[in-house]
Amino acid sequence: MAAPDRMDERLRALGLVEAQRSAQALFAGITDRGLITPGRSEYEVTDRIAGLHRQASVAVAPWPGRLVRSGRHTLLPCGQEPCSDRFIDANDIVIARFGPLLLGGHGTDFARTLVLGDDPDMLRLHEDLPKVFAAAREVYQADVGISGREMHEVLQALAAKAGWSLGGWQTGHLVGEVPAPYPRGARTEAYIAPDNGRPLRRTVQGGWQAHWLLEVHLVDERRGFGGSFKQLLTLG
Question: CA-to-CA distance for 186 and 204, rounded, in angstroms?
Fold first, then answer.
């Protein structure tokens, strides 16, 4: 199979960026409609969001679990489903995850965090999520040879500096090739994780340029909550 040409690469990149923009619009629609409100359960909110999914301009692959997590459930890494449903409180923190988002045969993921109420720690975490993402992206852009292991170390240092811990064993993964996380130890070169010593800038199966998602999953282990900010690291 011939390697993709520049036009193929450009169309793929544009598709991934457009999928992310659609996810951002979907999250905005959820907040504008007040779908995430106290008294509703995670499964109830997931069902309500499913209706908006069907109206989205980008295809959303079926996901077996819930699209939102709240309270202590926000400590769990992506791919680990809570054992029970939970009702959202008046003072709470909620993660919304959308994905895989499919466009042109390639997939990406997206996550954002919403705070209900005025808890100062939750509000500070919410503010820190995009800041840590932006700081990590600056490091990636400045270091053309950075590896998955080194990128993970960058996230750990940024999280600790802000006063948080990282949730989960990985902080991102390839888009398209791996649209959803697999258990630890499976294909470590496809993740931003301690075991991945390969450079992030490389080609992958089919000759495509590697594009990555970065997930900033910060947690307060003492109080038992977390938040997530997940989007494209290499595009957008």
Answer: 16
